[in-house]
Amino acid sequence: QAQLVESGGGLVQPGGSLRLSCSASGFTLDYFAMGWFRQVPGKEREGVACISSSDDNTGVADSVKGRFTISRDNAKNTVYLQMNSLKPEDTAVYYCAARSLMFRHCVLDPSEYDYWGQGTQVTVSS
User: Fold this and answer.
1) At 43, phi and psi to the nearest 5?
2) With 0-12 CB in 10 A as exposed, 13-18 as middle and 19+ as buried, what is 110?
3) How far is residue 68's CA from residue 63's CA, in Å, rounded to a whole number?
């Protein structure tokens, strides 16, 4: 059964860093456009960063530009989100998702993604 599993979340102080990982089983991630999203209670899920399958072109939300970086390691079948200079407002549950094979390019709209992980909590607090 195809499955995405996020890991790497936790508690970090403001200004700190975390690296989230999204590992896949049952399918090969390098064929898929992938995205990272986050959600806080009472708010809609928002796109954070994405990476296309065709050319590894990336997209990053303005709120995290210059601080977050998405990458993939095809040999490990894993997508990463490196998060630096974390702020309290980055606190959320972070999800990775894969877009349908019909689309090679990534977008930051969560409604365009078909396969989701269970999420990992990131808390930025002193």
Assistant:
1) -120, 160
2) middle
3) 9
Which two structure tokens, joined as six digits, stand for 23? Answer: 């590992």
Query: CA–CA separation, 88 vs 122, rounded Å?
Result: 10
Tokens of 88: 């309290």
- The rounded distance, in Å, linking the Cα atoms of 1 and 17 is 32
**What tens digit of pLDDT does each residue of 44-92 get?**
999 999 999 977 799 999 999 999 999 999 899 999 999 999 999 999 9
Phi and psi for 33 in degrees, rounded to 5? -70, 135
Q: What digits encode the pLDDT tens for the residues 6-27?
A: 999 999 999 999 999 999 988 8
How deeply is 119 buried, as exposed, middle or buried, from its count of CB atoms within 10 A (0-12, 13-18, 19+)? middle
Query: Which residue has 């979340």 as its token pair?
Result: 9
